[in-house]
Input
Amino acid sequence: MAKLVINETNKVGRIEPEIYGHFSEHLGRCIYEGLYVGENSDIPNVNGMRSDVVGALKELNIPVLRWPGGCFADEYHWMDGIGDKSKRKKMINTHWGGVMEDNSFGTHEFMELCRQLGCKTYVNGNLGSGTVQEMSQWVEYMTFEGVSPMADLRKENGHEDAFQLDYFAVGNENWGCGGNMTPEYYGNLYRRYQTYLRQYNPDRKFKKIACGPNVADYHWTEGVLKTCFDHTPEHEHGFMDLISLHYYDMPLGWEPKVSATEFDDELWYKTLNRAYYMDELIRRHGAIIDQYDPEKKIGLAVDEWGTWFKVEPGTNPGFLYQQNTIRDALVAGITLNVFNKHCDRVKMACIAQMINVLQAVILTDGEKMIKTPTYHVFHMYRHHQGADLLESSLTGASEIGMDVEYGKVPDLTESVSEKDGFITITLNNLSVSEAKELDVVFAEKKDIQVVEANIVSGSDIHDHNTFEAPETVAEKEFKGYTVDGGLKVTIPAASVVEIRVK
Ligand code: AHR
Output
């Protein structure tokens, strides 16, 4: 039997709510149709934002939303997306399907969406094809309270008060779609561009995010930090608050070669193995960042993560629309447990993407909407947001999987946190076929009361929700435990479980 020892007397860090963040790009049907249908749509909406989608997202306590890209960000010129919608410039979305972008969703619409969601705002600037002046003026437009050309323009466009900007990134994937730069070149541009991103409101400062590596590109991390901290007072406040990391789970290497719904056991384990690989990536990039920032003031923002499979048959390959099964639920559960465990360094993460793209939490079809298995995992894990990570250690997990290429993976992962006197334990059983017995022991707590226990699992690992059968996978009450000083838990095969005790 496996054993989980929880030392509830030792709080080892704070799990920032932003670890449970989301990413929305002008890509496929994420923004248009998914989030925004326009004020004149027959689909019920408030100021153009779909009411059903906003309602479902609010139940997840979305902490932060990243926009407008992704690769789109480095071709986006923000001035095209403000003012009278009928006069906004149209452009080609060269990265994503070559479709026409009419710019009807711009800065004001993004801020309105975040207002409705009650979340923080994360705007990704254009470094690849934009100027320092353009980036600087965007920040002035959004945040300056007084009289200035950009603040006056914002007021003319109907928004008297400054917007609340919480995070601003200087470019996206500048090692690739954001300009094919070297780390040293990017590091120098970061130094220059960030200089002109002024903090106009000392009591409402936004955080600056530098473009970090792709997957295991440790050379990028080293090169950017070395360049940025050369001749710059170490950890000068506000110079760089976070650095990003992008990692997609593509089980057969770069190129989406795997179906989202049709896979064998070997591909199941490969995918989960690749999800668990996030742990190594954070440790190794973290060790490099430690050399420049031993006090861990610079957060790691894993602002693109998730599964990347083949698009659904018959859909536009440039729209990245994929289904979402129990396998995605496990990827989410494993990854979020990894983030919790690394909350000393990981300060933000954004799943890619929020709706209708890659590992989405919601899929839409016209006026219909479904919640995916990943949605239900985020719903269970929401209790970790803003909680204290507790010391916990697991023994008796077995190495599992048949993967000769990557090695095996533990059959059980966990993380434990406490907030307002409630302890939340989240567990993943990675085995396709075997239930797992787990003994949960607390250091001092003896009078355990379970206040809530839930599970996401299926009768089959391929289970997923469709517009015809939207509730095939849902969060259900979990009864597979007994209370006995601690807890004795039977975790069903291929499941994500949450148990909350006080
Ligand atoms: O999320 C899809 C794309 O993946 C993003 O636009 C880009 O940043 C990444 O390569």
In short: Residues 25, 69-71, 172-173, 304, 352-353, 358 surround alpha-L-arabinofuranose (CB under 6 Å). The chain has two domains: 2-7+390-501, 8-389. The chain has a mean pLDDT of 96. The longest strand covers residues 2-14.
